[in-house]
Protein 1
Amino acid sequence: MSPYPKWRETSATRFSVDVMANLIIEAGQMPDAAIRFAQGIGQVWTPEHLVPLRTRVRQQHAGQLRSVFRALDQRFGEPNGQWMGVFRAAAEMAVMVEVVGDVLPAGDRQLLRNLWATLLRAT
């Protein structure tokens, strides 16, 4: 059983408009250096206690995830690159944070957003 049984989603309007627009913009701004960083990552794992949230996001927010994935594909032009899995995992975790908002403890929010933020800052 999840330690966060009362997950609730943030406002649908806020999530779908503001947050998705920001994530799509950020995807388009990923630096080239992020590819080198991603190539050095062997695997990305969702913490076990957050797997139920990941499953729900994949099922209930597939369209939003695909929008961010498309933006990443357009940015890098290599949708089948081996390193694209790192970008997709980072995007998925960033969406997870936004779906449930402040219900997640600060440490979990930071952990889930960290890879996306690190890729954005890659030099």
Protein 2
Amino acid sequence: MLNERSIAYTSPETLTSPTRVDMLGTPLDPVTMVGAVARIDEAIRSRRHLRHVAMNAAKLVATRQDPLLRRSVQSAELVTADGQSIVWAARLLGQPVPERVTGIDLMGAVLALAARRGYRVFTLGARQDIVDQAVEKLRRIHPTLNIVGAIHGYYTPEEEGDVVRAIVEARPDILLVAFGTPRKELFLAAHQQQLGVPFCMGIGGSLDVVAGKVRRAPRAMQHLGLEWLFRLIQEPRRLWRRYVISNSSFLSMVLMERFRVQLSGARKPSPEIDTDPARG
């Protein structure tokens, strides 16, 4: 059972960005894809912990309702804008980020980096058949990719200790966790120090996309910020609550914050002008 004490917090051995901004109480790192990959490469080479969280509207809303999820996100060393709505909202609230750095695109860039550098990769999560197909495809795409372990996500709570030990024994440089939210964030925050893996990231359903079981939105829809709509059309029963309700809540939060900022700015007193020449 996870509690606040089990969540790992940033230590001197981590690589938290000094330039991160606040997005409705959630940290956000204003990095590009190139910058994010460079930080990950640095973390692996220096053997320092770097845990990534991909932030979207649904997850940000969830952090308001789940204190453990909120603490796990706040303690992550790298938080990027996964959703286009996050990029737009950050700009509207005066905390702009340079671009969208999605989890699935970052995963692809990290795997390409691993293939070039010879970094060891471990995947955790998804169904066994999805894992097998995804690993096979990744090895076709990157013939030099060194996948040192892959465990499905359908284990019992009693088996979690064995899973953690298996990861530790494999000594990966990169750990990709294909759980949903908040499970992946809480797992990584709770076990980051024990695992000793330089770079960890939650990848959600990305292995399903790699395996060809789920299609990703066309590039045009991604650029328009409509990837959520494409996913909703594919899986309406599973995702309608997440997207319809969460997106409405997120929009409300952003507009209220925008109004608050404008109101506080309007109430600031004008600087007093001294007209007494004797004081000059």
Protein 3
Amino acid sequence: MKKYLFTAVLIAASFITVAQSGNVGVGTTAPQAKLHVEGSLRVDSLKAIDYSKYNLVLDSASKKVAIQLIRSNRDTLVRIYAKTGGNSVPHLTATRIVWSGTDINTVPSAWDASTGIFTAPHKGFYRISTNLTFNPNTGNNAQHTVIVRKNGADFAAAGNFDSSGGGSIYKPAGSLSTMVELNAGETVSVWAFQGVGSTQTLYNSVWNFLSIEELP
């Protein structure tokens, strides 16, 4: 099906300003973007042309005009990498993980390592990858689980049932990678659960990490 871009003739009720920065303002003398509009716009006429080279599309295929915006690669995407170690996880008690260090964080306002809560700055798809490794060696069939929660509710989980007999070279771990769709303001956190019989601790920070990546 042939696709078109419809160029619009925009009628402004006020005035147009071109700032020294090159920004153009409609209805404002201090434009803050390449095109900054204060007030309303009216689409007076449409003309169909091939739109294959454009990123802004007005599509009337359904007799409605819609605007499709494609994010520039220059926009800041969420990239977070955090580590921790020594956290206590009580027996049979789901425990939210807080992170002792953050190596990468491209959107500081979205991440609070002290609470372990990530808050999506805008709607999008996010890849969450994490690994938790427990320090003590445990007996057979001891349960260790890592959980990703969305808005406080379980979203994805992975478990480990150690059958090593508690040998000195074995340290139970849980690894998980998932993709989640978040609206602006929704949250993600990582939780640990274990059923060894007593409080356990996480191994050192090389073995306990969280990666959050916003997909373009």
Protein 4
Amino acid sequence: MYVELNSGDLSAAVVDNAAHHELSGHRAGYNGLAWLKSVHRHENLFVPLYAGLNLELYFDGTDTERKRLFEPRSAPMSIRQVDDTTAILYQEPTPHFRVESWTTFQLIAPHSIDFHFRAIPRARTFNGPMGVFWASYIEQPEDLALTFPVIDEHGERWVRHLSPQHGVESTHRFPHDTIDLPASGMHEQYMYASLSKWRLARPYYFGVSNGMMYLFMADTQHPSDDTIVRFTQSPSGGGPRCPAWDFQMIVPEYEIDTPYGISARVVYKPFTSYRDIEDEFAQWQAHRFGTRP
């Protein structure tokens, strides 16, 4: 099943894990946004066969069985359309990790998508932390890299980062993030175990595709208890010249039947400047927490 959403400049299709050949050949095993379009660019931002904001895998740093890790892509999902701008993806407890989840997509005029994920682990199946991974497969942007603010001994600055290959220097952390997953080299192909040197200064990154900015902003001020957010990327996750611009949520010490989650906003609009990015983030924070931008 899929539903179409419209608001302001944007239109999108929210899909479950089933194949939808009527949506430019969308394959089974990918959920989230099958396509995202703007009045400023009518082509799909995402690789048509795959998706964006796709609930990709669960991980704990020890399990290496691909079928178990990627069970969010194959376990049944259902969609409920709330209104013309909002849809909710529901997944009953998955076969191995036993995680029940709800994902809400809401288009906000003129050019934003609000994303809310809530998960409840129904059994103690993770051997250590509970990790959740999302992927967005971008259709041949002119620049495969991501740009984000970092902080180090030189202070805070913007950096442009392109992983040299899939699974190398993939994941970027905040300064307070000290979680060390006991992952072998096999896990690097899934990117969550391959850490870069960068420490994130702000909770957002952006990439540019055909003049359009894809800005991802995570709420790190009011996350679920002890939830950690990480940003991840691959230069070829969606195929040749089709990068994956991703993110993760890690719960270091999870409890059964306890909800955990993450909220985020995607902004999709023509790219203008770094200042515009900072303004978008300030406006989102003001909207969420009732403060002035």
